[in-house]
Structure formats: C-alpha cells, structure tokens
Amino acid sequence: MIVAVASGKGGTGKTTVSASLASIWPAPVIAVDLDVEEPNLHLFLNPVIRDQKASYIDIPEIDEERCTRCRACTDICQFKAIGIFGEVVMTFPEMCHGCGACWTICPENAIAPGKRELGQIVTGQAGPIEFVMGRLRVGEAMSPPLMRNVKRHLGLDPTPPDRDIIIDAPPGVSCPAINAVMDADVIVLVTEPTPFGLYDLALAQKAFAPLEKPMGVVINRADIGTRDVHRHCQKTALPILAEIPYQRDIAEAYARGQIITEAVPSVRPLFDALVKRIAGLANPPSPSEEVCHA
Amino acid sequence: MREILILSGKGGTGKTTLTAAFAHLASNHVICDLDVDAPDLHLILQPDTHTTEAFESGHEAVIRPEDCERCGTCLDACRYDAIQGDDPPVVDSLKCEGCKLCVALCPADAITFALNHCGDWYQSESRFGPMVHAQLFPAEENSGRLVALLRQQARAMAEAQGRDLILSDGPPGIGCPVIAALSGVDLAVIVTEPTVSGRHDLERVLELCRHFKIPAGVIINKCDLNLDQANDIKAYCRTQHLPLIGELPHDQVFTEAMVQGLTVTEFRPEGIGAAVEAVWHAILKLGAKPAPAKDQAAIG
Q1: A99 interfaces chain B, CB cutoff of 8 Å
Q2: Do A138 and B38 touch (CB under 8 A)?
Q3: How far apart are CA B294 and CA B215, in angstroms?
Q4: Which value does ipTM take for this structure?
Q5: Phi, psi (deg, nearest 5) at residue B176
Q6: A174 with B11: Cβ contact below 8 A
Q7: Which of A221, B32, B55, B184 is deepest in the core (most CB within 10 A)?
Q8: Does residue A202 sit at the B interface (CB-CB below 8 Å)?
Q9: pTM of the full predicted structure?
C-alpha cells in the first residue's frame, strides 16, 4: 500500500503525520520525502544515511560543427532552451525540461543528451524504517523531474516493492503535489480548522479528485479556529480520519524535531486509530460485509 | 519603485498572515499574491475584483482516436510515460509536459496540440489598495510563468498609479515559482519559526537568495515556541550577516483575527498589532537603505 500525506496549505503538519505514521506502521515501511524543495522528514526520523547520489536530467549538447542552423530544434522546443542568434547556437540548460525532442528530431544528429544536476537522492535507515529523500539543488527550478527520479529509484513504476510506502508530499496543489500523490493508494490530507486551511483543503480535493483515489482528512490543531472544516468534510463526504488536538507539548516536541507519538504518549491511540482507518480506506469492506456491520 | 517579497521556504510559518498586516500598514503600494497555487491573501483582504483574465500557458497533446493509426511511435517517444494504452493510446494530461515531441513524430498527424488555459489572474481593489493575484487551476503547471506575469502586471499598475512599493506574498519552497518571485526583488523578508524544520528551510531559502544576489532579512515568528531554537537561529543570522528584522510571539490572536477576516493589526492594534507594526518599520528601514558594498558581498 502507498499512502501519500499531502495538504494544499503548507505547515499544517504533513511531516508530523508522516513521521508518526512511519514510526508506528505495523508492517515493513519505506518513508519517502517527496517535498524535495524543503525536505524535513529526516529531521524527525534521524536516519543513518547509507547513500547520497546526484540525480540528473538530460539536456541538449550541441555539436556546432555538425549543426547546420536549420532551426528544427528551436522550432520544436517548447521551453525556450535553445536559441540560434545569427550563426551562434546557444542552449539555456536551466530552461530545459529534458523531453528529448531536440535530439530526436535533429536531422543532422548534431545534438546529444548531456546532463544537469537536479539534486540528490538520499537513502538510509531509521531503525526498521527504510528512508528515501529527494533534495533539490538550491537554484534548480524544477522539482517534478527529481521527484520522478526518486520514484523510479523506489521502483514505483511499474511495480511497487514488497513494502508499504508513506510519502511526505510537498505543499500546494499544482504539478509537484500531483506528482507526489499520483501513485498512492490512499491520500491523507492534513489541514487545520482555519479559513486558510479550509480554502486550501478544498483546492487539494479538487486537484486530487480526478485521480479517483480514496481520500481522508487529518485535522491538526483541531480545536483552534472554527468548525467550518468539519462541516465542509461532512458536506463533501470526505472522511475525517483523525483530529490532533492543539497542545503546547505537541508543538514543542515538533519544534525540537521529535516524533510526537514518541514524545507525547497521549496522542499514540489517535495515530493507532489513524493507521486502521487508512487501511480501511485502501481496502473498503465489500457491500456484504457492510450489511453484516449494519 | 521597490519590491519587497515575503518568503519562508517552509509553509505555515506565517507569511500570509504577516503580509496581510503589512499591506494594512504600508502606504502607496500595490499588493501582490505570488502564491498562485494555494493563494490565501485574498481571504483576509477580501478585495473586489474588477478584471479577470485567462492565463494560458503551455500546450497539451490530445490524440484524436479517429485519425490514430495505432503505430505506437508516440508511446515509445514520450519520456514522461504520459501516453498509455494502444487502442487508441491516450495522453494522461497530468503527466503530459507539453513538449510536442509526439505531435512532431506522429506519422498520421493525429495529435492536437492545444493551448492550455491553466488559471485566471485578477486585478482587484482591496481596503488597503490595489491588488494583483491569481488562481492556478488545481493540478496545473506553469506556476513560474504566472508568477512572472503577476509581477509584470503589478509593476505596470504601480507605474500607472504612481505607487512606489510592491508588497508580495511569496510561495513556499525554493523551486520554480519561488525563483520567479524572487529574481530581481529589492528585499526578501524570510519568515521562519524556531523549529528544526523552520531552521532547516531558512538555510535553503537563504542560499537561494544568495544565489540570485537578493538582500534578505529574517523574522522569527512564534519565537517563544522553543527558546533554544530561536537563539540558535539568531546566532545563525549573526554568523551569516543576515539582519534579524524582528521576533513575534506564538499567539492564538493571529488565528482569531484570521477567522474574523481581519489583519492582526486591525483586530488587535495594541499589543501584538504594535509589535507587528514595529517589525514593518524595521522592514522599511532595511528596504530603504541601499546595501553597503560590504553587506552586499556578504549577501551575494
């Protein structure tokens, strides 16, 4: 089973939930940080790092001798990554999306794939938890290609490995967030009961709905703000999987980099119930079972 | 004209809450929400939108089944695994990068390459002045281009109306939209919090500011959450020659104000509101002075 922990709004508690879930997960688990721009999961799981390797995207390298300045590449490139100015051919590596269109169509075979570093793929071990993180190189604009490389490294495509996976997703609802949740069996949306939390939760629901995955909500700091998030979940039939209370000791444990299920034992039952509900979302009871329960 | 951008790296440190308060306190400014993915500033400013424009950017490949000859060329060529199935193959719009390779290679010319309407952007009037903002449609891409467009519009609006400050709420992270928001601004105000995550993300966003040679200063929000971490961040700022603009406490009044649709400076003008006002004056002071050559070197 692959569980993606996502949110829309940043800072609602994705990493808190991901780290806690990983630490109490009842089966072998890989914790994956796909918030490659600002990965934080390692600060809580404290893995022993086994390997860090650079990850690359293919970009064009032009053989100026062979190039006839025919402009086939500049015509097809949708990302303004190649320009021809008079007789001068220039590439803009940081603009390239690595699609390969230029070297595929070049009639002179004058373009070969080179590479640009996207960042690193870091792997390690935190007790029984296998740990994988993507970390974007500072200055690199594109996070989805690195996320794709992390997923390839994990073997999400085509066959998931024989372990459960918990993905800590980036905030937002655009391409990086979609990339992080698209392979999941269950999406857990973490929100807070404030106007910002509600607005961004609704955006996330709308963004992820076309994926047709089971989704549920964890309301963090559940007793601040208003009841509007609760009402919204009820209205849109979005199950509330857990409510984490607002407590100073939870916030302080988080600030120190502690896993809250370990630092604040009173929240442990809440997360045990969350694990069960996530499993229930992934494998909903068949209609006949539902009749029995009714 | 000066552009001040509120940033954080980590989400949820209080960027938007503080930007809204600064929008209240600033004068002769244009307000700009550059978090086009999950914009929240309008929830507090509740502006009246007078102009809505479509944001069209990038293309998306769509295979016409009636023209497709099922040759499989597109399936093999796509480096994003965005094309699946064979009778007929279908493009997964969520995976399509809009690179046009399949369109160029299709021997039957069976792939349409349509311009993508991926969001809307707005010109609005708020109780604190004019505002430029946008909403990228959920699951869309090209947020960096939309951010660049908003900044261009904000500058045009400021010039047309003789306004000398653009105050922008930035997106979280350090990727594409943040780079588009950051490049060329006069000052980046980084809002952090005294948590291990806040500290970690502060370092990365600061590195990004240096990469683009943007002067930066730091606000420690929720500073009483963990005094050790707060002191650690202060020490870090000193060693990095990074101005500490101010500190604000962890207080439920921020949430109470948000629930009322008010800035904290409207909701509680004394106490917390006054503290936020002092921070704003410190930002103006920092933003007004041209960085001396030595500091510039430290930042760059």
Answers
A1: yes
A2: no
A3: 12
A4: 0.93
A5: -45, -55
A6: no
A7: B32
A8: no
A9: 0.94
- Residues sharing a CB contact under 8 Å with residue B159, sequence separation 6 or more, in sequence order: B1
- CB contact A113 to B (< 8 Å): no
Residue among A138, A171, A207 whose CB faces B172 most closely: A171
Are residues A173 and B141, on separate chains, in Cβ contact within 8 Å?
no
Residues of B in contact with A10 (CB under 8 A): 10-12, 38, 172
Structure tokens at A21: 């879930």
Which among A11, A48, A21, A18 has a CA at the least distance from the CA of A33? A18
- Please check whether residue A101 touches B, CB under 8 A: yes
CB A192 within 8 A of CB A14: no
Residues on chain A touching B261 (C-beta within 8 angstroms): 195
Please name every residue paired with A136 in a beta bridge, in sequence order, or none if there are none: A119
A and B: number of Cβ contacts within 8 A: 185
Summarised one tens digit per residue, pLDDT across range B224-243 is 999 999 999 999 999 999 99
Contacts of B268 (CB under 8 A, 6+ apart): B253, B257
Q: pLDDT (tens digit, 0 to 9) for every residue of chain A, 294 residues total?
A: 999 999 999 999 999 999 999 999 999 999 999 999 999 999 999 999 999 999 999 999 999 999 999 999 999 999 999 999 999 999 999 999 999 999 999 999 999 999 999 999 999 999 999 999 999 999 999 999 999 999 999 987 655 668 999 999 999 999 999 999 999 999 999 999 999 999 999 999 999 999 999 999 999 999 999 999 999 999 999 999 999 999 999 999 999 999 999 999 999 999 999 999 999 999 877 655 444 443
What are B8's two structure tokens? 């954080």
Please, is B207 exposed, middle or buried when counting C-beta atoms within 10 Å of its C-beta (0-12, 13-18, 19+)? middle
Contact B139 A199 (CB under 8 A): no
Query: Across chain B, what does the average pLDDT equal?
Result: 94
pLDDT > 70? residue B300: no
Chain B contact present for A141, CB below 8 A: yes
- The reply to whether omega before B172 is within 30° of 0 (cis) is no
3-state secondary structure of A91: strand
Do A99 and B255 count as a contact with CB atoms less than 8 A apart? no
A143 with B175: Cβ contact below 8 A? yes
Cβ(A6)–Cβ(A207) under 8 Å? no
Burial class from Cβ neighbours inside 10 Å (0-12, 13-18, 19+) for residue B252 reads: exposed
Shortest Cα–Cα distance, B11 to chain A (Å):
4
Residues whose CB is less than 8 angstroms from the CB of residue A122 and which lie 6 or more positions away in sequence, other chains included: A42, A49, A51, A52, A131, A132, A133, A134, A135
CB-CB contact of A173 with A8 (8 Å): yes
Nearest Cα of chain B lies from the Cα of A282 at a distance, in angstroms, of 22
Smallest CA-to-CA distance from B79 within A144, A223, A63 is with A144
User: What is the edge-to-edge ordering of all strands in the sheet holding B2-7?
Assistant: B48-63, B111-126, B129-136, B29-33, B165-169, B2-7, B187-192, B216-220, B244-247
Write out chain B residues lying below 8 Å of A172, CB-based. Answer: 37-38, 171-173
State how far the Cα of A160 lies from the Cα of A151, in Å rounded to an integer: 10
Contact B173 A38 (CB under 8 A): yes
B97 vs A99: CB contact, 8 Å cut-off?
A: yes
